[in-house]
Amino acid sequence: MESLGKDDLAELARLVEVTSDAVALCAQDGTILHVNRQMASLALDDREHIVGTDIKDLLFSNAFERAERHQMPFTLDTRDCSLMLKLPDGSFVPVNVRALEIGRDLLPLGAHRAGRILVVIKSMEEQTAHDRQTQRLLSELQAANKRLSGTLSVILSAMGSKDLPTLLDTVLNKLSGALDAGGSTIYIAENGGFKLRGFSKSLANCYVPDFIPYGAGIPTYVLRQSRACRFYVLPATSDDEDLGPASGTFYDMDARTNMRLNVENMPAFKTLIAVPVFFGTQVLGVIELGWMRPCFPRDYDMHVLEVVSDYLSIELMGLVTSARSKRSDELTRSLNRLRDMVYTGSGDLRDMWPRLTSEMTRVLKCRLCPLFFDHMRGRYVLDFDGGSRVNLPGGIDELFFSTVAPAAYVDPLAEVDAKIHRGAWTYTADDLVDVRVVRVDANSRAGRWLALHGLPSQGVFFDAGADFGAEDGAAVDDADGAEGLMLVEERPHRMFLLLRSASQEPIDDLEYDYLVHLAHDFEMYVQGTRKKESEHRIAQTLQAGMRSSLASVPGITSDCLYSSATKQALVGGDCYTLIRLPDDRVVMILGDVSGKGVEAASMSALVKTALSAYAWEGMGPQRMARSLNSMLMGFSRLETFATMFIAKIDLRQGYATYCSAGHPPSMLVHAPRDGVQGNISTAEIELMSVQSGVVGAFETMSYEAGSFEFSPGDILFMYTDGAIEARDPAGDFFGEQRLRDTLLREASSGVNGLCGRMLSALDTFAASALEDDVAMVALRFDMGRSR
To answer: H or E stretch including 448?
Structure first.
């Protein structure tokens, strides 16, 4: 100001002191001539140090650069300029600068007439801080809106979902985008551990554990904590020698604890939030949201994930239940296919075995490994991959049924108040008698032994029982070559393992119930096979000792035939006998006991024996039927009844009485009157039309007697209902009229072979598919009443 003269600009100096802005008066070259106290305060320096310095050394551009060609960093037209003011400590503060050149005409007369520059400076630090705060709040608001909209989008996308994979894919991808995460995964609790059921698209090229067993990894830790957890995942370092080379740790940020983490269970993230999914007290699974870099997850993100988890649990419960229901239906269909193979097949296990094992391994996605006992080595052998054999380390019971197990395996989630959803089929392994089924867990002795030999280490051991009739003898000799290996694959095995690799989930409850049901069916099949074999032996004995036959009686030429509908039993309920009595009298009995096979044959033998006894006692047909009815009604099995035709024949008189108890009417073919053999034009058929009710059905049943006369050459033809009830492929019955016409035609060829010819006609009509036992008897009278 001295250069201006103390009296010249004293008024101007006083003026700049009253303003609230910082003011500097400079010469044309930028030398500061005067500053007010606001300028000294803003520059954090004394006036004496500021006056005399160059204004260009204090004001710089926003890029912290000097003006080009040593010009002023501001304009002189009072426009605002944003610059940076340099402080004594070398730091800068943002300022707004306006400048004006004071012309010579503005200076008083007599004053130094050179121009001066008036610079007004205002600090922008508070405004910048305010703007920065506003921008930060705006960014946080935008992020919160993004999270809120993302959360609502996740919830809305989950509403009404009917497909579990689509639901999980949508939710996980939207969740990762809403929270700016690197990815997300969901594990569903299943038998033995947690199965990966979904992951976001960002993890498509990353390693994500497919299955994490109980007692290991992050999901089990989260379930035990029963809360949302934040983790750092740390790889193993050289200081972690006790953890092993293939291990790491995860650090709980809230509890501040470290836990070991095996490399196969390592997530794809460096930082993650894991939230348990509960439906009531039932464990559904764990959702993981993670970042590929170390960071500190916000509380807000944890709350969002918990809200999504709570809502998703409702949808997941329905979809998981639906998925289990579909899996149950699939297993039920497979079980029905196996039952059809067993019960409608040829009965030869060797023929059915490849199809049975193929269906089991298909639906369970397992590998079947037979177990043999090698008599040469005196130990059991496991056959893997159709020829790679390994000796078992001990006996079957010791290896698969030992009650000793690690504590962690017995109850890995003892501290968790949770229930794992189980199957609801009716049978359990305890219901089995001969067949044995037991799980093989990766932590069991058998599982560890399998893993030690590089084999799949989890699955099920299946023992079909000692009476299964399958091969469990010595292993096929190595010298047998490829043919021997073929036998190993195709022959039925009493014992085998169904194995899965460690990357697959263990056999779950539904699949185990499926195998238990299959074991129960095997047991029923074995029991049925034994019963059939027993009945076959009984039938052979009955056939040998109680074969229906006709005695040789003078005056009668006979022909008879029996065809059983139950071929494997060899016998049935139809029976017949011809009893010779004194004085040229005979008793003819033809009966049909209800039922088929051995049971009916046993009852028919009893009926035939009783009727034979009644005949020797001299009873007539009517009384014989009444006495047999009383005897059968004395049995507790009221469903046993019989139809029969009983005839007492007097050959001398040519006269007979009969009782037809619920039986088809027998037929008497009268020989042609002209006596010419083969002439059917004059032959006649007489029906035994007097009928009564069946024997053994009602205690008060009444029985009527009929009679007929016969002459030499007449043929009495008797049959059971299987003859007239035979059906053709169209479903039409053979019927009584067709039987009469056939009998009339075939009788013209004589009595010898008559029953065989009648059966051939029946078999042709039914297309060789007779469904009932058939018995036929033909008696030609060579004595009798003269015509």
So the answer is: helix 445-452
What pTM, to 2 d.p., does this model score?
0.45
CATH number for the segment(s) 345-533: 3.30.450
pLDDT score, position 542: 58
Find, among 571, 559, 604, 586, the residue nearest to 756 by Cα.
Answer: 559
The confidence score (pLDDT) of residue 430 equals 60
Is pLDDT of 417 > 60?
no
Cα 352 to Cα 621: distance, rounded to the nearest angstrom: 53
Pairing between strand 691-692 and 655-661?
Answer: parallel
What CATH number does domain 143-321 carry, 3.30.450.40, 3.40.50.720, 3.30.470.20, 1.10.287.610? Answer: 3.30.450.40
Q: Which CATH number fits domain 2-123: 3.40.50.300, 3.20.20.70, 3.30.450.20, 3.50.50.60?
A: 3.30.450.20
Which residues, including other chains, have CB under 8 Å from residue 604's CB and lie 6 or more apart?
572, 573, 574, 575, 591, 593, 642
Comparing 383 with 754, the larger pLDDT belongs to 754
Any idea what DSSP says for residue 727? B
User: In this predicted structure, what is the pLDDT of residue 266?
Assistant: 86
Distances 762 to 174, 274, 663, 751, 769 between C-alpha atoms, Å: 75, 78, 19, 17, 10
State pLDDT tens for residues 273-322: 998 888 767 778 888 988 998 888 888 788 878 877 777 776 666 666 77
Would you place residue 349 in the very low, low, confident or very high pLDDT band (cuts 50, 70, 90)?
A: low
| pLDDT score of 263 more than 50 | yes
* Tokens at 386, concatenated: 């159709």
Of 356, 350, 378, 380, nearest in space to 368 by CA: 356
Question: What are the distances in angstroms from CA 640 to CA 571, 596, 662, 677, 711?
Answer: 17, 12, 14, 44, 38
Domain 546-781 has CATH 3.60.40.10: yes
Q: Is the per-residue pLDDT at 483 higher than 60?
A: no
**pLDDT exceeds cutoff 80 at 14:** no
At 17 the pLDDT is: 83
What does the alpha-carbon distance between residue 540 and residue 546 come to, in Å, rounded to a whole number?
10
| DSSP characters over 463-531 | E--TTS--B-SSPPPGGGHHHHHHHHHHS-BSEEEEEE-TTSPPP-HHHHHHHHHHHHHHHHHHHHHHH
β-pair type (574-581, 549-550): parallel
Q: Does 754 score more than 70 pLDDT?
A: yes
- C-alpha angle 393/396/348, rounded to 5°? 125
Q: Which residues touch 460 (CB under 8 Å, ≥6 apart)?
A: 366, 437, 438, 439, 440, 497, 498, 507, 512, 515
Indicate the domain borders of the chain: 2-123, 143-321, 345-533, 546-781
**What residues are paired with 394 via a beta bridge?**
none
596 closest CA partner among 562, 628, 634, 561 = 562
CB atoms within 10 A of CB 454: 9
Same fold, 143-321 and 546-781: no
Residues in the chain, how many? 787
User: What pLDDT, on a 0 to 100 scale, did the predictor assign at position 780?
Assistant: 94
